[in-house]
Amino acid sequence: MGTVNALQVPQDILDSSGLSIAELKVEMAVHLYSQGRLSIGKARELAEMPLWEFRQLLASRHISPHYDEAELEQDAATLSEMERL
User: Fold this and answer.
1) 3-state secondary structure at position 31
2) pTM score > 0.85 for this model?
3) What domain range includes position 36?
């Protein structure tokens, strides 16, 4: 993982939103993914969720998957890794 940058969110904004930091990260990840600004892999990293759980969350919100060649390669690598375990 690269350099970690800190995003400061004033407590009154968190209080007003009714979200915890973890929930805010999930909301940001979902939004950035739905806008095509993050791949599913990077979005699930931001949300700190397993890939299958993040995909379920997207499906529950009716956000269709953006599936490109890089994600196909990532899935193939994951399947290959799983077969080695």
Assistant:
1) helix
2) no
3) 14-84
